[in-house]
Amino acid sequence: MSLPVSFEFFPPKTSEGAAKLRTVRQQLYARAPQFCSVTYGAGGSTHEGTFSTVREILAEGVDAASHFSCIGATRDSVRAQLAELQGMGVKRLVALRGDLPSGYGIGGEFQYASDLVAFIRAETGSAFHIEVAAYPEVHPQARSADADLQAFAAKVRAGADSAITQYFFNADAYLRFVDDARRLGLDVPVVPGIMPIMGATQLMRFSDACGAEIPRWIRLRLQGFGDDAASIRAFGLDVVAQLCEQLRRAGAPGLHFYTMNQSAATLEICQRLGL
Q1: What is the C-alpha separation between 66 and 77, in angstroms, rounded?
Q2: Is the pTM of this model over 0.90?
Q3: Cα(111)–Cα(69) distance, rounded to whole angstroms?
Q4: What is the average pLDDT across 232-251?
Q5: Is the pLDDT of residue 75 over 80?
Q6: What count of other Cβ atoms lies within 10 Å of the Cβ of residue 40?
Q7: pLDDT-based confidence at 47, cuts 50/70/90?
């Protein structure tokens, strides 16, 4: 059974990185992605790089989704960027609260992602397909699991079309989150975010920062491999491919890969799944 896939990139900081990403994208396009998303730095710090990468993806004939964060932003600045995106031909947004650069106060005219979703809908109607974030293992800043679920509900009720989750390695967390959302009458597709395991140190650093849990047995296996990169890669491919197959059997509506601007691991997982 086929399954829609999408790929996430971050805007490269150098001309060499941009050239490498172009090659990576061409390799991943062989998997016929539904769309490719491009991340947005804290406080909009990568605004130009994000929009430039989005333009390139669109020019390559692939649907591109721009991440769009609102914390620290004003209604006028958001309105101007929405007009810019519409002018570029963007049809899909990933609407996020986002993070402020260190040293800044809260600021801005938007407090939550649900405020941004509501504003986009009020300003542009149905011009954009709006994705929002979901956290099967609970947002690290949420007061409780129920408060986090209610925050997700607010985004959906404000007008979100679908959701992409933070990555996870425990399928039960995702399935329970979807069940809880359905009980609240939230029927939008919730696409699991998938993080290929490409290195132990990087994965643990990312996971500690974003609140994604690495199950103890995975963490211990990774630590046991030490600096054996080949074993880490082989183990990681097995773990993530099995997770994806479990999600597919459970009826996940698609898979969204956090590629880290690399293609090999994502391509291998897709190949194993026959996507």
Answers
A1: 16
A2: yes
A3: 11
A4: 97
A5: yes
A6: 23
A7: confident
* Residue that the structure tokens 């979807």 belong to: 178
- What's the whole-number mean pLDDT along residues 231-250? 97
CA distance 21 to 8: 11
Nearest Cα to 212, choosing from 134, 113, 143? 134
**Which residue out of 8, 48, 56, 213 is catalytically annotated?**
8
Phi first, then psi: give them for residue 174, nearest 5 degrees.
-65, -50
Catalytic-residue membership of 109: no
- Give me the sign of the Cα torsion angle 140, 141, 142, 148: negative
- State the first-to-last Cα distance of the chain, in angstroms, to the nearest integer: 8
CA distance 3 to 98: 29
Asked if residue 43 lies in contact with residue 100, where contact means CB atoms within 8 angstroms, the answer is yes
* CATH T-level fold of 5-273: TIM Barrel (3.20.20)
Q: With beta carbons less than 8 A apart as the criterion, state whether 6 and 265 touch.
A: no
Q: 8: helix, coil or strand?
A: strand
Every domain of the chain and the residues it spans: 5-273
Helix (H) or strand (E) holding 249: helix 229-249
Q: Within a 10 A sphere around the Cβ of 275, how many other Cβ atoms? A: 18
Residues facing 68 on adjacent strands = 95
Short-list 135, 251, 245, CA closest to 193: 135
> What would the two tokens of residue 54 be?
């989005």
Long-range Cβ contact pairs of 137-143 (< 8 A, separation 24 or more): 137/166, 137/168, 137/170, 137/173, 137/211, 137/212, 137/213, 138/211, 139/166, 139/211, 140/210, 140/211
Assign 3-state DSSP to the chain and report helix, strand, coil percentages, each to 5.
50, 15, 35
- Which residue, chain included where needed, has tokens 């990555």? 167
Distance, in Å, from the CA atom of 71 to the CA atom of 96, rounded to the nearest integer, reads: 9
